[in-house]
Amino acid sequence: MARWLLMARxxxxxxxxxxxxxxxxxMLGVSRSRVSLAACALQKKGLIYxxxxxxxxxxxxxxxxxxxxxxxxxxxxxxxxxxxxxRSVPD
Length: 91
Prior knowledge:
Layout: H1 2-12, E1 16-18, H2 21-28, H3 32-44, E2 48-51, E3 54-57, H4 60-66, H5 70-81
Helix pairs in contact: 1-4, 2-3
């Protein structure tokens, strides 16, 4: 979930996102209860604020630490296909 939130954040260039459980469980391919557990865990760590379909990323560095190392790899790979201004992680 942390990786997916970072990737979504990179695409919309905002720490604030309107995301419901329905959208997240479909995008992540997990149950709604798993989405709730993950969102609660990230919120308890102070990384996000989640309430009724709205997520605010509060600590990007913490979210990056919570995401797998594949986030950096994916971001670099996407950077090869996107314009320079769209890159989130420098090469």
